[in-house]
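sorry to bug you again but im stuck and you know this stuff better than me. below you get a single protein, a line of residues and a line of whole numbers that encode the local backbone shape. mainly i need to know what kind of three dimensional shape the backbone takes. anything you notice is useful, everything is just below:

***
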Amino acid sequence: MKKFEPYQDWTTEFLQYGVFDHLGSLFGIEKNRTWPTLFQLNQYAAGITQCNGLQIEFIAQDDIDWQHGYYEEVIYKTGHIPTRLNNWHDLFGAFIWLLFPKTKAFLNALHVHDINRFGNKERTSMRNAITLFDECGVVIPFFDNNLPNYLQEHEWNNAFVTNRAEWGHRIDAYMFGHANYEMATRPFLGLTGKALYLAVHHEFFELPLKSRYAYLDNLLINQIQEKELLKDNQNLYPMPFLGIPTWYDGNKDSGFYQNTAYFRPKRRKTL
């Protein structure tokens, strides 16, 4: 797999890729001539609170008071989110907080709950699953049960070619993993996220973009809590996300999906 190297300086060149369309629409980052500032991010964060009621605030990592403990503990106890300046990973992490504030706060509280029970040295299967979703998650809302089945069974041609017109109408994709976003700034074949599938009402696909994110934010908390979707990583499925329609121009040609090194067939258990 190609070694990823991020852009060293601010650029909006990555906005040419459809995977970033939502960020462009909701945050207007194409207007930025330099890195979005903490002030800008905190303007968007106004009114967003942690599970314990504290207002969140993006704070330069060098200014964080680490006496409160580990990264997740700092966020939970103070509402301060450690943020490296001029850093792609942390910038996209901030955008995910703004897009899924309730889910991010809830996952943070789950981390802290496990830290309180088991300490920092022992990572439970739940904390590992939360981290995997946090870094690499792709939320897939769907109305037609056949479509996620195709994806889960690695029937890529059925999912992305035969049923291509259904994307945006009966199934769709929303990035949750900020590491995915970072690497998608300079996309290469091999980029793979972890899909979490959520059944939605058909009317979901008619909602304005901002309302769709709010809907998913509430649904994620409900499903993670009631169905324990992230108690381990069993509900997270491989997603070669450059294949998602509109996310990458290279997939307009159906031949793109014939690359079995990227769109891998599912391993079948042998007797």
